[in-house]
Amino acid sequence: MELYTIYEKMGLSRQVYDRGEAVLAGLEARFRAIDQTAEYNQAKVLHAMQKNRIGANHFAATTGYGYDDDGRERLEKVYADVFHTEAALVRPQITCGTHALAAALSANLLPGDELLSPVGLPYDTLQEVIGLRPSPCSLAEYGVTYRQVDLTPAGGFDYDAIRAAINGKTKLITIQRSKGYATRPSFSVQQIGELIAFCKSVKPDVVCMVDNCYGEFVATIEPSDLGADMVVGSLIKNPGGGLAPIGGYICGTQACVNRCAYRLSAPGLGQEVGANLGILPAFYQGFFLAPTVVAGALKGAVFAASMCEGLGFRCVPASGEPRCDIIQAVELGSEGAMCAFCEGIQAAAPVDSFAAPVPGDMPGYDSQVIMAAGAFVQGSSIELSADGPIRPPYAVYFQGGLTWQHAKLGVLLAVQKLVDRGLAAL
Ligand SMILES: *Cc1c(COP(=O)(O)O)cnc(C)c1O
User: How remote is the CA of residue 126 from the centroid of ligand 1, in Å?
Assistant: First the structure.
C-alpha cells in the first residue's frame, strides 16, 4: 500500500506530502554526514560500556542510602569516559537540567565570587538561579555577583569586552552551547573551545562550565574535549535517549564534580549516597540509544528548516548551515502561526495527539509559553516537541523526535496547519 494513503488519514494533503518528498531529495548528503557522526558516537558509547565491563548485575535497584551502588558508580564512569572527564555525577536526584546547572554553579561559587556569561543572557530558567530576576536562594542572595558580555551584532564573541570583564573576583565562566529561547546562533564545540582557551589565557584558574543542553552527540567531540572544566545537561534531552524518565548530569574535573556532589547531597556525603531506585536500565539503555536518537532529531531539524524556508520563514540555523545542537528556530511572525505550527506537531504525536496546545504561564519563564509535545516522558524535549515564548519574533523552537520518521511527519503536519489557515502558501 502506498505510504500517502495512511498519511492522508492523518490529515496530510497530497501537495504538502509531495513538497516534502521534493525537499528530501536534496538532503541526502546532509543525512549521510549525520549518520556518520552517529556511528562514531555509537562506537564511543559502546567502547565506554565495554571498558567499564557493564553487566546485567549493574541494573539492580538499590534503595535507602544507596551506599556501594556499583551500577550507579559504573554509569558515572561510562559518562566520564564518553565526555573524557575525570569524574561524572549522573543521578535521578538531579531533577532536570536547570537543577544540574544550579547545583554546578552554587557548588563552585562562594560569597564574593563573580560569575561571568560571555555569551549574553543565559537561558530563561537560569535567570532566577543567578538572581537576574529576584528569587529566594538565588546566587545573588548568597552574595555571588554576575557580569555579562553580550555577543557582537554578528553573533560572535566580543573578546575585548570579555578580557575587560574578567577581574580578580571572576571565579566561573558559564557558556551556553545552545541558543535556548533566543534567535542567536548556537555555538560549535570548536568555537566554545576557542572561547575557553581565550578566557584561560586571561585568567588561568577560572572555572569554565558549559551548559551542554541539546548539544550532546551532535558532534564527535564535546566541550570537555576542548578545555571545559564542567559540562552539564538534562537526561530528558539528548543523553537520556528518550528512555530516561528524569535526571541530569555533570561531567568534569574531580574537584568540580566533588563539590557538585557535596552540594547535591550534603558536605561529607557527596557521591557516596543516592539510591538508584531501579532506574539504571533506562539510564544505560537511553545513553546507548542517544547517538542514533540525536541523529533522527538532527534530520528532523534539517528537514524542518528546508521546508519552512521554502515557505518564506527565517530559520536559525538556516537550512544549509552546520548544526551545533538539535534545536531549530523558525520565526513565524505571529502568535497564530505559532499556534498552528504547534498544533501540527501535537497532531503527529503518539500520545495526546487529540489535545490542542494553548499558550500559558510556566514557572521560570517571564512570558507565556506554548508547548506542543505528545511525549512518553512528560515535558521531554528529546521527543518530538515544539515550543516558544509568545513574544516577537514569534519564533517556535522545534526539536527532538525519537525516530526520524516521526519527526518528518511532525514537520509535514505543522506545515499543513499553516497552509490550511492561510498562514503560508506552498
Ligand atoms: C532546557 C535547557 C535548560 C534547562 O533544562 P530543564 O531540563 O528544562 O530544566 C538549560 N539550558 C538550556 C540551553 C536548555 O536548552
Answer: 8
37 in contact with ligand 1, CB cutoff 6 A = no
Q: Name which of 213, 221, 138, 220 is nearest 174 in CA terms.
A: 213
Beta carbon of 212 within 6 Å of any ligand 1 atom = no
Convert the pLDDT of each residue in 57-91 to its tens digit.
999 999 999 999 999 999 999 999 999 999 999 99
Strands (E), 235-294: 248-252
Q: How far is CA 231 from the centre of its chain?
A: 12
| Cβ of residue 211 lying under 6 Å from some atom of ligand 1 | yes
Give the H or E element holding residue 22.
helix 14-25
Nearest CA to ligand 1 atom 8: 97
Taking only the tens place, the pLDDT of each residue in 371-426 is 999 999 999 999 999 999 999 999 999 999 999 999 999 999 999 999 999 999 99
Contacts of 324 (CB under 8 A, 6+ apart): 177, 178, 185, 186, 187, 188, 189, 215, 218, 219, 317
Each residue of 274-311: pLDDT tens digit? 999 999 999 999 999 999 999 999 999 999 999 999 99
The answer to whether the CB of 313 is under 6 A from ligand 1 is no
Give CA–CA dist 204/198, Å, rounded.
9
C-alpha to C-alpha distance for 83 and 250, rounded to whole angstroms = 10
Q: Is the CB of 181 under 6 A from ligand 1?
A: no
CA of 293 to the centre of ligand 1 (A): 18
151's grid cell: 555577543
**55 CA to centre of ligand 1 in angstroms:** 32
Number of C-alpha atoms within 13 angstroms, CB side, residue 204? 0
